[in-house]
Design goal:
alpha/beta, six-stranded mixed sheet, 7 helices, 6 strands, 45% helix, globular, disordered N terminus
Length: 285
């Protein structure tokens, strides 16, 4: 037994035994590191799985799934502005393709993917005979209303709507053009004067210009409507609508419609002013 104990003691204290112990400890350390790395990797997989589970809900049971996909509100972007879309809807055009660009300055043209005109040039209007007024011998109200409604419906279906907006030259009369023409929009933006910054609202003059149809039409109409004042009273005012349709609408014809509309609005306002003055004079008498 003494010999056996001595032999065991010598074996334990020998360099070979010490080396074996070190190797075992090294293997144990490597195993622990491998286990820790594996555990962290599994944890990452679990976290990723949970994140995917939370984002798309693919792993949810049927009883907990949403009926419809969730959406961010408001979901606005260039070409999709709720306030402006409501305004266009009031003008009779609904941008179904969610790509309607309100253009009030050159930057808006670039955002819409258009190129501003290099130099603004005066545009000479076409002869008045090219732009008949609804209610005249050349154009009935019924014919104008029919083409006007058809034009609004087709504009609503357009892939993109470009809406230059500004003041009629040398006045403070607001003008909005609703068109699907990427060619005419920059030119019309150059024709109108830049207006003070304002929220989207209906304008006294609205032009509907549809490009790419076999039908050729041009006309304008002026009607009197009532607008509610701040005190709740109703005030009469005139508004104008210009409709130009064709394969390639002529900008000169469009300008003729805008000019005729401006003259008609001024004449109506002068007539109402004279009527108010006469009523005031009779009241004093």
């Amino acid at each position: 037994r003494a010999a056996l104990h001595q032999s065991t003691a010598q074996s334990a204290s020998s360099p070979l035994s010490a080396k074996g112990t070190i190797m075992q400890r090294s293997l144990l350390l490597v195993s622990r590191r491998t286990l820790e790395a594996s555990t962290k990797q599994d944890a990452r997989l679990v976290v990723n799985a949970v994140r995917c589970f939370a984002s798309d809900g693919s792993g949810l049971p049927e009883s907990l799934k949403r009926i419809a996909t969730s959406e961010v509100f408001p979901n606005e972007y260039p070409g999709q502005n709720y306030a402006f879309n409501w305004c266009l809807n009031g003008d009779g055009v609904t941008p179904l393709k969610k790509a309607s660009f309100r253009i009030t300055k050159e930057l808006d043209l670039k955002i819409a993917g258009l190129v501003p005109v290099a130099k603004k040039a005066a545009i000479k209007a076409a002869p008045a005979s090219k732009m008949p007024e609804a209610g005249s011998d050349a154009l009935t109200f019924e014919a104008f209303d029919e083409v006007s409604q058809r034009t609004k419906d087709l504009l609503s279906l357009s892939e993109k709507l470009y809406c230059p907006e500004g003041d009629f030259p040398t006045t403070r009369t607001g003008v909005r053009v609703i068109t699907n023409s990427a060619t005419l929009a920059p030119q019309l933006m150059g024709y109108l004067e830049r207006a003070p910054k304002r929220d989207p609202d209906s304008q006294p003059i609205t032009a509907y210009v549809l490009e790419g149809t076999d039908e050729e039409f041009a006309g304008y109409a002026i009607e009197e409507v009532e607008d509610e004042a701040d005190d709740g009273s109703l005030i009469a005012k005139s508004v104008a609508a210009v409709v130009v349709v064709g394969k390639k609408p002529d900008i000169k014809v469009i300008v003729a419609g805008l000019e005729a509309s401006q003259k008609g609005l001024e004449a109506d306002e002068a007539e109402r002013a004279a009527k108010r003055a006469a009523e005031a004079e009779n009241a004093e008498a």
